Amino acid sequence: MATLLYKLGRLAFRRRHFVALIWVALLTLAGVGAASAPPAGNTSFSIPGTEAQKAFDLLEQRFPGQSADGATARVVFKAPGGEKMTDAENKATVEKTVADLSDGSEVASVADPYQGKAVSKDGTIAYASVKYDVSGMELEESTKDALEAAAQQARDAGLTVEIGGDALSAAPHTGATEVIGIAVAAVVLVITFGSLVAAGLPLLTALIGVGIGVSSITALAGVLDLGSTTSILAMMIGLAVGIDYALFIVSRYRAELAEGREREEAAGRAVGTAGSAVVFAGLTVVIALVGLAVVNIPMLTKMGVAAAGTVAIAVLIALTMVPALLGYAGRRVKPAGARRGRRGTADTAPKPAKANMGTRWASFVVRRPLAVLLLGVIGLGAAAIPATSLELGLPDDGSQPTDTTQRRAYDLLSEGFGPGFNGPLMVVVDAKGSADPQAAFTAVSDGIKDLKDVVTVTPPAPNKAGDTATITVVPDSKPSSVATEDLVHAIRDAGADVRADTGAETLVTGSTAMNIDVSQKLNDALIPYLVLVVGLAFLLLIVVFRSILVPLKAALGFLLSVLAALGAVVAVFQWGWLSGLMGVEETGPVMSMMPIFMVGVVFGLAMDYEVFLVTRMREAYVHGESPSQAIVTGFKHGARVVTAAAVIMMAVFAGFIGSSESMVKMIGFGLAIAVLFDAFVVRMALVPAVLALLGKRAWWLPKWLDRALPNVDVEGEGLKALDTRDEDRDVVRV
């Protein structure tokens, strides 16, 4: 592998015009496709294999023409102080608003609050339900404008009016913090390299890679049903790994220059050595992201595959475009350790050896491995304690910022009709196999009325064929509460008894039930996912390090860091610690996708630092150094760069904490804190401590397995032969 990548690096350096032209053409093509494609909306939320999805599909089949997946809006009215919604003037305003809402071409139905008894008991709050023929992502802007205009007219008449539902759903935005994250990355790069040109290369290549990836996602959004969140997550991960991968190539290039090699040769060797680590690090990230498909949630699968595609582009750019740009940069990228003289001339004379911070830290850990190990494990264990209180759910309008109309509508409905009104349950009774469908409908309805935490049960509404009916149940507790989840399970248990008596099947659906089923599905898939992803990556790392204990240690360290990161997420987003600083306006259950998504992404990123740091140790050990000295050598060459890479990745992820989308905000924080724990505690402290305790045993591999494994030569051992041939040629010349 090292020899192949060495040749690729030299080729890209020599043919830099051709390489740059290819990548610019790809960026242009992707940009044109994105510009001509329709904007992405909210992806359809299909969860195969869940009861809620089965009920949803049954509704579409048995109630044709009712647009079960159509957008909805709740226009909520509140009377001024001292007045009621039943007052003649306020009633006339609402009725005019309902009439205006009914005129839209995409409107399926509008329910009048006075005819539908949608007025609160105290008479101060009422709402009108609007149903559309198309989904929220398909609604035309003119329809949304008409909805907002109707609400504004009612506001002008003196009422408080807010709009809930998914009809006004908008693409999430990240705000200025994303730019701040990139700016921090730029500063770190300048400090690391001491040169604007060298610092600009990783940023430029990462932006090109992300541009191609995100533009491709945007261009294919309509065809593949990709939501706007997909591109944001791909951007988040693509920026982080793109900068890091280019950073490692450029750093190794400068180190090769410092050893006196010509620039083309240095570029080839940088790609042959650091590029090998980039390939395997990228493979672990891709495996972790594509592995999300085992959960069998289409939205999560698409997010993982799209992000994995962006990572693959980042790897290819690091291997080809980075050496090409190094060729353009020429002498403006200086050898590692080079300084400028007073008159601006480069001083590349060797300086007296001085132990850097990485060397001093590694030497300390090698002397005190047990103390460092215990301190790190105890610290991560303490950070993980909040994870024992983890509660899972999916965000709804109640988690929106308080300045949005959706959140204000949510609060008004809770005030007027109770907290459970924002999460009604749709019970579907399939009585096609029942001898007396009407009796089955009544039995289900009566059984639900006897359950705890039930406020309202509407009469069964059968379809034209009379074999299926819907029943709306309003819980007494808010949608994300444990009590509501218990109610869903209780309705399903009661439905099993009705089926035994009447032959009718009872199904529970709606957004609340769907969230509950998704959480359960994700919980059930977590262990198989861990086995698949960690198992595949474990095998890959055995090939890379030719060791059993090093990959095992890497996997155990990852588990520690991800548990600690989950604990931090619970503390902030569920318990409310530092919630104001993070812009979290409403605490509640952690997004149900968070644990499995964090496991996938963090595992891939954690292996990045493992591969980059430990391959330098392995390289030193293979070339004859003792295990302890190899640890110090690995830190001498890699600690500064890995530290810079981790800070950059944290800055990029933290930049997404300012997103308006609660899911993106939570993932940005979770990944940033996970990189902090994994890079600076696990990889920088626990890894050298464990390797120091293991000694030569860390690099043990059974002989039969050593013979069976392919030799991928990550350490660049094959490049030593090139040195030998060069020396032989020099001797012949003499």
Helix content: 55-70%
Strand tally? 13
Query: What low-confidence regions span 5 or more consecutive residues with pLDDT below 50?
Result: 340-350, 727-734
Overall radius of gyration: 30 Å
Main sheet summary? 5 strands, antiparallel
Whole-number average pLDDT?
A: 83
Shape: elongated
User: What oligomeric arrangement do these chains adopt?
Assistant: single chain
- Report how far the terminal alpha carbons are from each other: 33 Å
Strand content: 5-15%
The number of helical elements comes to 23
User: What structural category characterises the helix and strand content?
Assistant: alpha+beta
Mind explaining what this structure looks like?
This protein has 23 helices and 13 strands. With 734 residues, the protein is of the alpha+beta class. Helix 7 packs antiparallel against helix 10 (298-329) and helix 19 packs antiparallel against helix 20.
